[in-house]
Structure formats: C-alpha cells, structure tokens
Amino acid sequence: YAGVVQAVADFGFDGIVFVESETAADYLPNLRAQARMADVDLIIGVGWLLTESIELVAAEYPDKLFANVDGWVPEAPNVRGFMFKEGDGSAIIGALAAFQALEEGFDSVGVVFGFEGPVMYHFEAGYRVGIDWALEKYQEVKGLAEKPNLKLLAPYSGSFSDPAIGKQIMESQIGEGVVGSYNVSGGVGIGMMQAVAAAHANAGTTTGAPYYFGVDQNQDWWELGQYCPMSMLKRVDSATYDACKMVAEDTWQAGRSLLGIAEVGVYVSTAAALAESVEVEIIKGNIDAADRYTVLRNWAANRADIAPWIWAALGELETGVVSGDINVPYVETLTDIQALRAEYPLN
Description:
Elements: H1 2-11, H2 27-35, E1 42-46, H3 51-60, E2 65-69, E3 79-84, H4 86-104, E4 108-113, H5 118-142, E5 151-153, H6 163-175, E6 178-184, H7 188-203, E7 211-216, H8 222-225, E8 231-234, H9 236-248, E9 255-259, E10 266-268, H10 271-284, H11 292-304, H12 308-323, H13 334-343
Parallel strand pairs: 1-2, 2-3, 3-9, 4-5, 4-6, 6-7, 7-8
Antiparallel strand pairs: 8-10
C-alpha cells in the first residue's frame, strides 16, 4: 500500500481504490469489480493465493493491466509478476537460529509454514541452506573435527491466520527443545509469539532462547522488543511502486521480476529499520509512544547477548548471497523441494 501511495504522489495518478478480501471467495468478485471500473489503469493483487483469480480475470479483461505480487501468470500478456527470493533472507534467519542453538546448547531449530506452495518453498529452501551453512561455519570457527548437527522442526500449519494453531505448534516445539522458530505463516505467528512470551515469563527471562523470528514485515518490536532478534522483510512497497511506474512511464512488460537481497527486494532487520518501524507502529496505535525507547533498548539487549563473531558471520553470508558465491536455490515445485529436503535433511 505504501508503494502505491508514493506512486500516486510521484506520477500523478488520480487515486487508489483499495479493497481487502475477507475470504478466498472474495478474490474473483473483488478483482472483477475493479476491472469493470473504466478509470482504473492497473489492478494489483498481493499474495500468491490470488494468482489463479488474477489469471481468470486478466483473460476476461485483456485491456486491463494486472500486477501479481508473489505470483506469476506466464502466458498472460497483461500480467506482470513480482516474485521475491525469500530464500535469500531466510538463509540468514536460518543461520542465526542455528548459531544460537549451538551456542546455547539446543539440539533443534524450528519454523512454521502456512500452506504448501511455491512461495513457501522459497522460504524453506533458504532456511535449510542457511542452517547447513551455519553448521559448516561453526565447525570452522570452533575448530571442530566434525560438522555439528541440528534437527529441524518444520510443520505446515494449514493456516495463515489462526493464532491458536501457532501457539499450539510453538508450545510443542519449545517442549521438543527448539532454540526458537521462524514464522512463515502470517497471523499464525501471533500465537507463536504468545507461546514464546509465556515461556520466558515462566522462566523469568527477557532475552535469549526461545526466540521468535519475524517475517515479511518488521516484527522485532513485538512484546516490547524482547524476544525477536531478527525479521526477514519483503519490499512489497517496491514491487507495487515499480508496477505503477511501468504504467505511468508506458514501459509495461509482461513476465516477472525476481527480487532478492541484491535487488533490495528482501532484507533482514537492522536497528535503523526497527526505529522506523516503531514510529510507524506508534502512529497505528500498536505501540505506546512512551514505550518507544523501551522497545529499542530491549531489542538491543537481546542482540547484545549474541556473540560478535556470529554477526560477522551473518554479514559474510549476506555478502556471499549478494555476490552469488553462496547459492540459495530458488525452489518452486514440490519435486524440487523434496530433492532439497533430501540434500539438507537436518534430522
């Protein structure tokens, strides 16, 4: 939404028609309603679950342009897909989780996915690769004779919106000894964080394991910044802005854009990013202005417990991903993710 707002200001569009679907049954009627509007130049659908609906409506209205964020319709001349290489950022989250598991004496790392599908496979591939890279790096740094091993708990929850499922899964993972878990399941993560906060409350701790790792937006501020040391962020605003720019400048092309760390399509959270997010959440009413510096202090304290060499190693990993020296596979099919699971079993 922020990208579209900026594009309206920069390129002089008359306005925005914003529609939020409450259920999957709303996708087709909402898209068709926008396509029927004579003065609508571009229809943007955000989320891979809208891809089939966009394909149908784009065929029905060939004179309209469609941007599919997180999806792609290969044969459609009036659809541009904007896909993210979520694996790039997920590799860094996976490496951090693995390092902390080894440093703090845990034998498992966790992740919770939504529904199986191409976008989820991007995350899973990167997370597995990042964990494996960290195991090799840990062996090197510590001078170990053998590469250490960790178990990955990686359920698909079947939801992107049910916090109760997230709480139940996270409680189970904590019971099985995970150092923390990565939320790749949208609103399910609310319940995951509730379970993490409860575990810390029971232990009387405010930093360290169990950790929560955020996704898509900066979630480091949750629970006053105490339990989430890093989030993997997607620049959906960049994708929507680029789509609007193509329309404004009459440079529209079908096909798709692939946006990773090198393309500034995904990135992991930093102090500057958190400070910006805190101000946004204060405006939204999600953070009390009086808690602004409490959030920043708590987050900094949590990160300070992580060894400096680990932050240096994560920087090395990020540099390698950007340069291409470290390969994070872009996995889109069930066959390919099954092959990658076999290559990086983590069991």
